[in-house]
Write a structure and sequence with these properties.
By secondary structure, this protein is of the alpha/beta class. The chain has one domain: Rossmann fold (3-Layer(aba) Sandwich). 24% of the residues lie in helices and 33% in strands. The protein has five helices and ten strands, in the order αβαβαββαββββαββ. A hairpin with a 2-residue loop joins strand 9 and strand 10. The protein is globular.
Length: 222
Amino acid sequence: MIESKGWNWKIVSDDKDSIWKNPAIESYYLLSRWTSQGMKDFLDLGCGLGRHTILFGKNGFNVKAFDISEVAVEKTKSWAEEEGLTIETKTGDMLELPYEDSSVDCIYCRNVISHTDTEGMKKVVEELRRVLRKGGECYLTLGSKDTWGFKQESWPLVDSNTRLRMEEGPEYKTPHFYVDYKLAKELFKEFEIVNIYQVVNYHEKEDKVLDSYHYHLLIKKV
């Protein structure tokens, strides 16, 4: 199993207009859904700079913010203090979450748990199931094998589903695990899959249009 590695948040802009300081689109749906279900204990798994920690904290959730990066956790903690929010922050490895069994109602991990290899992913799935309460939900994303990154033959292949990202930037040499529909279903067979869909994002770089595909899953512990 490859060693876990997170983003280098030291080189990521934390300006208020940065994408990493503004919640992702689906987070507002999840906020509404989980509020209506009476959920309170929220885990921001891979909190980054804290964009979802702050959103859920401002809306009455008891927030646990977790990341492998001490820089990320400190920035999240500082932002929460500026907002007058009381949150629990911890640094660690997602392969061994520092939380008790059945201790959270809902988990949000966007573009986070794919930063491992196949064996690591199996362990992460076990950890998600362990810390969720029965009936609790998790929203997560995983890189798709249709995306350009998985097709980069110059990026070292760790196993049949995983490559090391060799592009300069905050994810340099970070493992990326990719799935197809069949593998995604198999990974979460112990959960009820409430929803699963694939999204493609387009962005331009050096006069090239890159298509980035991700699976989005909403799963429930049964």
